[in-house]
Amino acid sequence: MRILGIDPGLNRTGFGVIDAAAGEARLVTAGVIRVPKSELAQRLAVIYRRLQEIIAETTPDMAACEKVFVNVNPNSTLLLGQARGAALASAACAGLRVAEFTPTEIKQAVTGSGRAQKSQIRAMMVMVFSLPETPQADAADALACALCAAQAARMVEAAGAAKTSIGAARSTSCGGARAARRAWTQKITGMEERKP
Question: Where is the protein localized (predicted)?
Answer without folding.
Answer: Cytoplasm
